[in-house]
Structures are given as C-alpha cells and as structure tokens.
Amino acid sequence: MAGIDEYRTPVGEVRWRVRWRQRQDGRVLRQSITFEKRRDADHFVRMLDVFGGDGSKASAAVAGANLAIKTVREVMLAYIEANHRAAESQLRKYRNQVRDHFDDTLGHTPIDRVDADAVQAWVARMRTKQVGKSNSRARGTPVHPVRAARPPVVDQARLLSPKTIRNLHGLLSASMEWAVQRGLRADNPCRGVSLPRVEEVGDEMCLLTHEEFDLLHDAMTPRYQLLLRTMVGTGLRWGEITALQVMDVQQSSEMVALRVNKAWKRDGEHQHYVGSTKTSRSRRTVSVGETLGRDLLTLAEGRAPDELLFVNARGSQIRHNTFWETNWIAAVQAAQNPLEPKANAARTGRANATGRRVAGNKGGRGNVKKLTKTPRIHDLRHTHASWMIAAGIDLMVLQRRLGHESVTTTIDRYSHLMPSQHIEAARVAELAARPAGSGRPASDSRSFGHEAG
C-alpha cells in the first residue's frame, strides 16, 4: 500500500514523497519517489494500483500526462473522438456544443483546476446565456405568427432551455469521468451540481385536451391527419415516426403495434439517412388503439415493406422544417381562427380524430370552437404522455413506451402531472428491477449522448 508524505526542503519548498513496496526478483524492496506537485503524487499512487506496483511504469504514466496537461476543451474533444457508438451527425453536434458553450467559459481551464464551484458557476452562466436564433434574425424580418402567439415570455424564450443545459452538463460530466479514468484528474466535479428543472420557463410544454387535438387535427391537411393521430397516439419522436417503414406496422392476434428501431440522422455531408435509434431503450414496440391500428394497416396495405410509411406529396421523407412551415403553422392558425364553417351541419354526429362523436355547433359565430393554445410538433409527444398519465398508466410502462433511458427521465419530465405516490412507486420499482451489484441508475450516470425528452 503506497503512502504520501509531505515535507519541506531546507529552503522551505514543499515536496511530496511517495513510499511503497515493490516486488523484484522474488524480493520485496522499499521504494520512494518525490514530486513537486501533490497532484503528481496522487496520480503516481493511482498508477501504481493500475500497474501492480511497478514504479517504472507508474512514473512513465505521470511523465506522459505532464507532457501535455489537458484543458477542459481538449479533454471533451478527445472524449468525443474516442466514442465510436454515436453517429457522425451526433459527434458533430457535440463538437459544436463544445465550441458554442465551453470555449468561452471553462474550455481553456486546465482539466485538474476545475472544481464543483466552477461547474456551478458555469451552470449559472448558461442559465442567462442568450441563444442565436433570436439574435441572428435579420433586421426587419417578421416574427413567425405561431411563434409570436406563444405566451409573453420573449426574453425568457431567448435563453438556453433547462433541458439543453442538462444535456450540456451531461456531456461535461461524461468527459470528466473519462479524464478521471485516465488519471488526468482525481474526481468528477460535476457530481452534486444543482441543475435547472426541465419544467422551467423556456422549455414549457403545451398539452392538448382531446377536444383541442380534434380542432388541430381537423384543420390539418388531410394527407397528414393520420400522421398526427399516430404521433399523439404513440408519443413517437419526429425523427422516429417519419423513419417508420411499412414493415414496422406489425399485427398480432391481439393488437397492432409499431416497431421503433430507427430514426433520421445526418452524415458528415449534412445528408439525411435512416440509422439506428439513439439508445437501446429507444428501440421498442409501441401498441396502438384499435381504430388507429386499422387505419395504419390500411395505409401499409399493398406497399413494399421497405417503403417509408409516412411520405410527403412527392413520396419521400417528410422534413421537419418543411412540414412546420407549410402545414403545421397553417393548421394551428386555422384551428385558432376558424371561419363559420358551412359544413358544420355535415360534421354533426361525425366521429372525430380521437374516436368520440362531434356534437356540432349550434347557433351563431360565437359558438364556433377554437384552439386557444399554440402547440409545437413535439408537444404531441408530451400530450400523449399526459393522456397516458391521466388514464393511470404505470410509469414504467410509459417509460418504455416513450423510449426513455430510465424512469427517472420520465419522472423529471412529467412529475408535475403525476400523483406523488406514483412517482415514489416508480422509483422503488426501478431500484427493484436493477440487477444485484449494479451501480447507479442509468439516468444518473452521465452516459455519452444521453438526452432526456
């Protein structure tokens, strides 16, 4: 067992001496080595453990580390490049995050000089940092009508969202763990740092009732009405639902389900391609209701198995930006500002998007129902979760349905919708489901590329 002694030289300089026993040629020899810096002594002791007490190898490891003291930026980039599980598009995203959010803050700090206070100060700075979209808008360019209709939190909306800050912290934390494993620092300063909750302003959800979704659905272009019903009926992410193929509609004797095992990605040339989902938990099978199941089977009938299930008018991928600008915005505005419909009488008694009956509008214009909220596309996923929670669905089931890495992610995202006893039950259930001897829950280990939502 190695020990470290601090002492002073005759001229008053502080030194650290490491003493240990080393086996050599069948004998046990007492060894010692002196360092000018405590961190080098600590590093040497850790390397002794790694190399089985071999002082020569431990000394070489310390010398190698000192030849290139790493900054936070260098460590984060090295960590990103060392990870081979993520797609190139995801690696590029992480590199950009280092450039945009660390280069001008912690980036140039030596890796061993960062402590928990420095990380907490970085979090505080991120909470007041303005993002580029609002600042980069050309002078005189009008704000989009749907964005303008959001609640009056204009200044807050320019800030990094709590979710983004948590994701950035996760990347920093994973990089620090990587540095610890390689002897570049003694601990991970990201542990125990206070982070903003995802429900805070700037990352707010817009949850729709069944009736509100009906208004949006009926205002949508008919081609995409089934897409909307599938989104709100499954909670799939945009990149997942638009990557579904005909073969992913699966029918059994009991139900219809969607197999989710891929999503749209971007390669190094910024071209879209269909790749695997982000994590193993994202690969899942999601059941659908009877009516939606029949409509999906009809949509898939007679088509090639490898065709995209949902396509645009040209028969190709539905791009998020194009759909938002040409269809989503128009549908939201139409639902918010309905004209007196001539077809109201024809709508009376018609089954609506969620399978309930529409009573019809009686009387004059003042009785025309309208949407008063301004949802984003991703809010259909949140709406699905809210409907499941309201129906009393078990949180572990909801976690798997949404493809969250851990039930803790589900709780963090939707705890404000849940009775407290359900939250506690889910936490206990997750602990019980973990194998004996396992470490922290997956959501607590800042794994590379983990993002909640």
What keyword list fits this structure?
single chain, 453 residues, alpha+beta, hpI Integrase, Chain A, 3-stranded antiparallel sheet, 8 strands, 43% helix, 11% strand, elongated, disordered C terminus
Task: Characterize the structure shown.
The protein has four domains: 3-67, no CATH class; 72-181, no CATH class; 210-367, Orthogonal Bundle (hpI Integrase, Chain A), CATH 1.10.443; 392-444, no CATH class. It is an alpha+beta fold and 453 residues long. It has helices spanning 38-50, 55-67, 72-82, 88-101, 116-127, 132-136, 145-148, 154-157, 162-181, 210-219, 225-234, 238-241, 290-300, 320-336, 344-347, 379-390, 395-402, 407-414, 420-433, and strands at residues 3-8, 14-24, 27-35, 249-251, 256-260, 262-266, 272-276, 284-288. It has 19 helices and eight strands. The strands form three sheets. Strands 1-2-3 form a three-stranded antiparallel beta sheet. It has a three-stranded antiparallel beta sheet with strand order 4-5-8, covered by helices on one side. Strands 6-7 form a two-stranded antiparallel sheet. Residues 133-144, 147-157, 342-365 and 437-452 have low confidence and may be disordered.
List the helices and strands and how they pair.
Blueprint: E1 3-8, E2 14-24, E3 27-35, H1 38-50, H2 55-67, H3 72-82, H4 88-101, H5 116-127, H6 132-136, H7 145-148, H8 154-157, H9 162-181, H10 210-219, H11 225-234, H12 238-241, E4 249-251, E5 256-260, E6 262-266, E7 272-276, E8 284-288, H13 290-300, H14 320-336, H15 344-347, H16 379-390, H17 395-402, H18 407-414, H19 420-433
Antiparallel strand pairs: 1-2, 2-3, 4-5, 5-8, 6-7
